[in-house]
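Researcher: Let's continue the batch. This sequence belongs to inositol-phosphate phosphatase, and it's 258 residues. Same format as the previous ones, please.
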Amino acid sequence: MTIRDDHALAADLATEAGERLLETRRRTGFADAAALRAEGDRSAHVFLMESLARLRPSDCVLSEEATREERLDPRRQSASRVWIVDPLDGTREFSEEGRADWAVHVALWDRGALTAGAVALPAQGRTLTTAEPPTLPAFDPAANNGRFRIAVSRTRPPEFVQKLAYLVGADLVPIGSAGAKISAVLTGEVEAYVHAGGQYEWDSAAPVAVAQAAGAHASRIDGSPLTYNQVDPSLPDILVSLPDLASALLAGIRDLHR
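Model: Same format as before. Here are the structure tokens for inositol-phosphate phosphatase:
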């Protein structure tokens, strides 16, 4: 097994899970949104768990759709390799016809660090992966009078991010899933993503792995490192941005919290 194998596996599993979710959308339809969300979560989780059990039988897995007992399995804390997956990130968007801002996350935590990951954006027809990290767009401070864009939740944008945008001269762009938001930073649709108010490891592990491989800034909103495979998988806040903007955003966040 090589590191390259893990990159490729993450990409292959995320992509195939996404293709299966597109088929679930076509087969089930959008008339019963709750049923579509439930089937999407269930089927993608089963596919990823069965695939990893077959292809990486000695590794542990932390999945959003796991039971509480599975998440608290003590073997995960002593394991050297843990796959952190979100079978369907953005179930609300998945169940809304025409929306493409949902994702599949597959990441590998290996001995204390994220070493491989992939974010499939099935309805956008692409997968961002550490196997071939995307090239970060350049930020031109002279463009748009120095203004830039921050991705936020389309349903519950944190109030402090609205204040931060005013302070640093940014515009807010509502996007669905966390994976879609971080991917938007990497593809040039926005320049930053700031969130506080509740997330878990599976919401960010895969997109952060890709972001770090691409050279983007990724941290907690106080600038401290993002850590994974913790006993409590809560990871409530995050900042991902183009590297040139990180200092200004962190300074703005500090000013708001004084």
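Researcher: Any comment?
Model: The mean pLDDT is 94.
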